[in-house]
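TL;DR need structure tokens for one chain.
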Amino acid sequence: MFRVKAVAQMLDVHVSTVYRLADSGRLHSVRVGFGKGGLRIPADSLNAYLKSLGMAPVETPVTDGDSAAEATNDAQVGEVA
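>> reply
TL;DR here they are.
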């Protein structure tokens, strides 16, 4: 699952746009936590939305809430040459 900020960066839109897409039902989302909580976008939902726009799908995230690219960058930082 992706965080709203990560989806906004992938789509090159403001985070409020992602929230509007989720509120309108055009982009399926899941609430996590209590109260207001956080919003997560499942990878399959994001890919379905991208497909409807004629865009290429994204890779499934490999860590909690981070995109695969962010996880790869984190791994590279920790490597010792």
